[in-house]
Amino acid sequence: MMAGYEKVRELRGDLPAIRCTNCNRLLYRGVAQTIEIKCPKCGVVQLFKGGERRWSKPGGALFGGVPRVVTDSAGRMVAIPGRPERVIALNASNLGLYYASGGNVVGRASTNMLPPDMAEQVRSIPTVGMPPCPDVARIIAMKPDLVLGMHAPMHHSLAAVLEKTGIPVLLQALEHYTDVLRILRLYGELSGNPERAAGKIEEIETRRRELVRQHWGNPSPKVLILWEIADGLYTALSHSFVGDLVKRLGGVNVADIAIDENLSYVPFRLEAFASFQPDVILLVNHGVESVTGTRFYQELTEQPAWQQLNAVRQQAVYQLPFHLFAVNPGPQLGDALGVLADFLYKGHVL
């Protein structure tokens, strides 16, 4: 049955069926001279004119070739240009990955998390505010056809506002090693440089394989990963990004032994992990470059219980480089793996 303007009528099966070319959802039956319709399933807007199917440009956004539908890390199906031409990246990781895949942006977040060469490369590109609080008006004024954001509450709210103006937003979570490779591949397709993205992926994978081969047969070190933020110390499990890398390099995360939960981080309690005697302690800090300025260092020097740990007695306590581990390293993933392997198997005290 279908609703007409005057009464409910039977849906005529002899009329031509018009379906979405992305998801095959039935859009309508019939013939129309000109009609623009949004697929209720995938959200792609299509224009039918004189029997010819075209892609429309809602809000001026979808003009980069034939659109495609992408499911982002938030589980949202987003219709985006097949070849976006005006991209804005709202955080350092997305910016680095898009550039590593051969893409360019017209706007970016203001951030100090970029490596020096990348920071110099994008210095002249207009900024749209800090990653946690982008300037919505400035973004809209730039007329982007794609915005790359984070799978985080503040960017979810931003996406809802931007998409009402016809600007598509991809919310990406870089929580694991494989996420970086997957998003690199996607960005290579969007930028029209799939070979360049594939080359970067192979470079990272080759580095990982080399590191595993170098340390094959060595005893697996027991590792305690600490994450320090403003409200205290947390322990990173293997579901976290750094925990995932440690596991891929052969380390045994003592938090996985002590805590049988599908979590990324839990509040740290020394008594919960002391009995597992970690061989290596790794610290990630979000605000201080020097380990001596951290809350962890204060606890280490003031609480005698820390001195009972093998890692402390052997001086195998390392602060991970801020620029590689405070946020996802993106295209510098190979460098991050190298630093971790060095700390896990050879060791350089910071």
Could you characterize the architecture of this molecule?
- The protein has 350 residues and is of the alpha/beta class.
- It has three domains: 2-56, no CATH class; 68-204, 3-Layer(aba) Sandwich (Rossmann fold), CATH 3.40.50.1980; 217-345, Rossmann fold (3-Layer(aba) Sandwich).
- Helices cover 33% and strands 21% of the residues.
- It has 13 helices and 19 strands.
- The protein has helices at 92-100, 116-121, 136-141, 153-164, 177-191, 194-214, 241-248, 254-258, 270-273, 295-302, 310-313, 322-325, 333-345, and strands spanning 2-3, 8-9, 17-19, 26-29, 34-38, 45-49, 52-55, 68-71, 77-80, 87-89, 107-108, 146-150, 169-172, 222-229, 232-236, 252-253, 265-267, 280-285, 317-319.
- The strands form six sheets. Strands 14, 15, 16, 17, 18 and 19 form a six-stranded mixed sheet that branches.
- A hairpin with a 2-residue loop joins strand 6 (45-49) and strand 7 (52-55).
- Helix 5 (177-191) packs antiparallel against helix 6 and helix 6 runs parallel beside helix 13 (333-345).
- It starts with a strand and ends in a 5-residue tail after the last helix.
- The relative contact order is 0.09.
- This is Vitamin B12 ABC transporter, B12-binding component BtuF.
